[in-house]
Amino acid sequence: MTDLEDQCGQVCTELHAAWAIAKKDIRIYYLKPNIIVSGMLFPLFMFLAFAVGRPADPTVMIPGLIAITILFSASSIEPVSIPIERRMKTFDRLLSAPISLHTVVLGESMSGFLYSLGIAFVPLIAGILLFQTQVIGIAPLVAGLLLTSFCFATMGTLFAAYPTESPGDIMSMLNLVRLPLIFVSGIFIPLDQIPQIGHFITYLSPLTYGNDLIHAAFAGDPHFNPIVDIVMLLFFILVFQLVANHLYKKFNE
Amino acid sequence: MYAIEALSLSKRFGNIQALSGVDFAVNEGETFGFLGPNGAGKTTTIRILTGISAPTEGTARIFGRDIVRDTIAARRQMGIVHETSNIYTDLSAWQNLMFTAELYNVSRKDREKRGSDLLELFGLSERRDDKTNGFSKGMKRRLTLAMGLINHPRLLFLDEPTSGLDVQSNLIIRDVIRELNKTGVTVFLTTHNIEEANLACDRVAIINRGHIAATDSPERLKHTIRSVQSIEVAFEPVSLVRVDDLEQIPRVSEVRKQGDKFRLITEDPPGVLDGVMEYAKDHHIRVISVKTLGPSLEDVFIRLTGLDIRTKGVKTVD
To answer: Could you list the residue range(s) of the whole structural domain that residue B76 is in?
Structure first.
């Protein structure tokens, strides 16, 4: 067998193991009450609290609701599952398996990714059926849903690297980041109306690019070129993956 | 080729030196016991040998593969049974086995056959599809061991496999370890049960304060402390016997109460026996049995680790 075939075989093995980890999380955690509350109900109530009563165009509010839903649902699985698995010592199984740490991070992120993709269809379909919003760009919608979901699922896995056995510890830290993100990423305040001084923070938020891409699918007038949104989301995914890998290695010494 | 080679392993956590120059080798097909008091460095060593943690200095090889540089290939050779029965309690026994098999890249056909065989072997077939949160401690332990064997490992790490288990689970697990050894699987066993190590292991290493104190077969280790002999005496009525009085008998260096018997440690068993008979006569007590004993592996352990294990707890003697 050549080196190339050997490497391809190893990649397939690692992807298979990542999928096994994701399947395990799907079976165990998707219906846990704290996942349902933080992944489904929390974004809905956040949205209602800030959007109800405001005169807003559904083509602006529905993409915002989808983006918030993805942010909260994608980043909710691992901050709950990984501390529980640390407490039960089952996380040691993943750390001692013949797979790389990148695969562990990927597999854990995949379950959050798939969860948020499923949940994101609820506001998407509700928007189309109840508010008569129209999707005018399938490509940015698909790219926006996939990349934003994966980006925030990886962010959730990154935060879950913090070596605690209590999901509450990680959720508290995560909310310190998630809650400000929804106010600086163009969801409730359009990016054009954010003061110049706030743009620096806006550009550091992955939600800005996810929301912009989904917004482009409905309104067709994105703030950035969709290619920029896609590149920035890929950049954040890469950074989150690398930092998560580093932290899991460091904290498990 | 050795199954395990630990070469000058050291591990430092901040100011704490957890391991210092740990060296040992485990032969293929050997059952190797790794003994030591709490905090001696057993867990740190296992974490290094299984690639979870990297040594600060030194190297370790599993069947010739460097555990740091070639971690995945080294791990493919091993099965790991952690100290805690770390199974997914929201999954069934079958799902737990299949998940582990997928992590170890066992093919679908092989994992289904192997999974069924292991459930049968460990007496869990009837509970195959039940969620494991209803399993007893022994059943969870047996499933943990089955999960460690799903990938046909050449080397099995067993961390306290029988600690606190019921008799049935204990017997099944000990029997399986014996059978594994017959088929050439190398077993690396850590245990607090010194008698278990004495019976199961070809060789043992005793680690203390991050250093290997001794590595040899149980019998040869016992020979190194032949001076520690003892006599075991049973009296009637036992309530009249005082440990302090027995310690006053000439040439008795230590007395341990073991159930309804007393073990008198000495270098001169015949001389002490005379003293015991005299003590019994003076106190109107009957001696109902006497046994002369050589040093046990526990004596070796106590001597090498500097611990004195008494009924009231553990104390340092050096």
So the answer is: 2-217
Q: What share of chain A is helix, strand, coil (3-state, %, to 5)?
A: 80, 0, 20
Nearest to B80 among A10, A27, A96 (CB): A96
Gyration radius of chain B over CA positions: 23
**ipTM of the modeled complex:** 0.88
Q: Are residues B160 and B20 in the same domain?
A: yes
Backbone φ and ψ for B184, nearest 5 degrees, come out as 95, 5
- Domain match, B262 and B210 both: no
DSSP 8-state symbol, A176 = H
Please indicate whether, in this complex, the C-beta atoms of A93 and B105 are within 8 angstroms of each other.
Answer: no
Give, for all 253 residues of chain A, the pLDDT tens digit.
Answer: 566 667 777 888 999 999 999 999 999 998 888 788 777 777 778 777 766 766 677 887 889 889 999 999 999 999 999 999 999 999 999 999 999 999 999 999 999 999 999 999 888 988 888 888 888 889 999 999 999 999 999 999 999 999 999 999 999 999 999 988 888 888 877 787 888 777 888 999 999 999 999 999 998 888 889 999 999 999 999 999 999 999 999 888 7
Residues of chain B positioned with their CB less than 8 A from the CB of A23: 99
| Owning domain of residue A77 | 3-251
- B44 and B150 fall within a common domain: yes
- Which residues touch B90 (CB under 8 Å, ≥6 apart)? A27, A28, B131, B133
In this complex, which of B84, B95, B102 lies closest to A17 when CB atoms are compared?
B102
Question: Of the residues B183, B217, B251, which one is the last residue of a structural domain?
Answer: B217
Which chain B residue is nearest to residue A81, measuring alpha carbons? Answer: B88
